[in-house]
Amino acid sequence: MLSHQRHTTPLALLALLSCSLATPGHAASLWDAARDEVQHVWNDGTLDAYLPLNTYHMRWAYTKEKIAEFNENPWGFGLGRSLRDDNDNWHALYAMAFLDSHKKVEPIAGYAYTHPFIHAGEWRAEIGYTAFITSRTDTLHSFPFPGVLPLVGISYGNFTINSTYIPGGKGNGNVLFTFAHYHF
């Protein structure tokens, strides 16, 4: 854990992605806060390893035939740097690649933040978000695009299982993506 209190908020990264209504001066200060947070995690964090575990397509959103076509085993791997602050919040920078629903490689890089809302010894239940850039063959013809998604996790010591939900409509999105990470 860090010995000093951080004054920048990880929500600055989230706000940066949605600052289209902000004034130029406000956007600059958000950019500065986000840059400081990234530098802090990179400089003070330690190594993490990521392992994608499951891609679950909500059965109500797809036909049985479409579900049968999907890959739900997202083989892949990732590395990152993370730290826990004085309040036990998790801050992470990560890069990962895995097989998407169509068995195509999907790279992703981003920032993640979680806050523990339940502690029981070394066990933690956490909630937060991830802000990222990814690229998919079936979206924008593989052109990189940003996203922000919710993140929940269960941790024991340095091992965590996280899940995020990709919203959508009938026949798209509505996917629960689960991955593990270990903080060295």
TrEMBL record:
Position of the signal peptide: 1-27
GO cellular component labels: cell outer membrane
Pfam family, one: PagP
Main location: membrane
Transferase among keywords: yes
Cell compartments where the protein resides: Cell outer membrane
SUPFAM superfamilies registered for this protein in UniProt: OMPA-like
Gene Ontology molecular-function annotations: acyltransferase activity
UniProt keyword annotations, A-Z: Acyltransferase, Cell outer membrane, Membrane, Signal, Transferase
Family: Belongs to the lipid A palmitoyltransferase family.
Name used for this protein in its record: Antimicrobial peptide resistance and lipid A acylation protein PagP
Species name: Aquitalea magnusonii
